[in-house]
Amino acid sequence: MDWNEEMRDIRRDLGKLRPAIADVSVAFGDLAGAATAPGALDTKTKELIALAIGVATRCEDCIGFHVKAAIMAGATREDVSEAIGMCVYMGGGPSLMYGAKALAAFDQFTAPK
Fold it and tell me: How far is CA 103 from CA 12, 36, 60, 72, in A?
């Protein structure tokens, strides 16, 4: 999977959906901003939690978004790997498979260009 291409595609698709559900889109954006704002947990930790939930629920697009956001928040490959380890512990084989996708996304997003 080409994660950069996948993210372009989902952003394009979301760009078409947002006007159709404008009020919901704005509210979801506000919710995302509030949920990821630093508090007792920093933004990096919150993005690693979101990534773990994406892995556990088998949401490939969520994985892509939250891997990128975790990187932007300062997450390292080791941080992402440990979060994936917790997913495998809690979710077994399916989390292992989607965890592999998450680490592949991290590697693609951080590869030298």
Answer: 24, 21, 12, 15
Query: Which CATH number fits the domain that encloses residue 90?
Result: 1.20.1290.10
Instruction: Return the closest-CA partner of residue 48 out of 3, 83, 92.
Output: 83
Q: What pTM does this model have?
A: 0.91
| CB within 8 Å of 42: residues ≥ 6 apart | 73
Give the structural domain span for 34.
Answer: 3-110
* 89: its two tokens: 């512990």
- The number of domains in the chain is 1
Q: Is residue 47 a contact partner of residue 66, using CB atoms and an 8 Å limit? A: yes
pLDDT in tens, 67-94: 999 999 999 999 999 999 999 999 999 9
